[in-house]
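Appendix B, example 12.
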Amino acid sequence: MNNHDGEISTLGMVIGSRQRLFREGLAAMFRSAGFLHAWEVDTPEVVWSVQQRNADILLLDMEARTEETLDMARLIDGQRSHCRTLLLDDRVRPAHLCAALGVAAKGYWTKEDPFSELSRAVRQIAAGRLSFCPAARHLLAMTPQGPRFRPRENTPGTAAGLTRRELEVLALLSEGLTVKQCAERLRLAASTVDNHKVRLMRKLNVHKVVDLVRLAVREGLVGT
């Protein structure tokens, strides 16, 4: 967080989650750590809070509403704000990790990781570095262009081999949206979305939308 003299003062972090008890507890733990200000907000208030607080870090809980969470990260990234996003998942989900890279998240950790490691990750991200939990690092290849998703197994029938855009289309189709509605949501032509749909169904070796829904639930792209 910058003060009026241009010097760096205590960091400011917004914690976004629909689970009030979780976000309040996590904010209290970070405040106790003593190196940042932490504000906890409901997910729909995230973008407003980041802007009003001039936050340095946004910690977003990847809950059942995965697409909503990713939308928030896209909005923050699209504003070209100095705020850096860290996504917190229940466990490492390859599809979520791939999507995190797609929305330019600077970190991806899970609720299974200890707070001491999460606290260190926040410091790393605030210093301009990337930070991924150990289980996620096994699925990444570091390149001159940044981290790239590298699934353990490139086998058919899993979402790991899909592109970021294909993952987005898969998630939206699985929520019951039509191709036209997906196109409106993603600001793409309907024909483009339809092409993504055809390719992802071929990659996943499925022929019915109901099978897409089952796979999306299994991969953690949509809630049950």
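The radius of gyration is 18 Å. Residues 1-8 have pLDDT under 50 and may be disordered.
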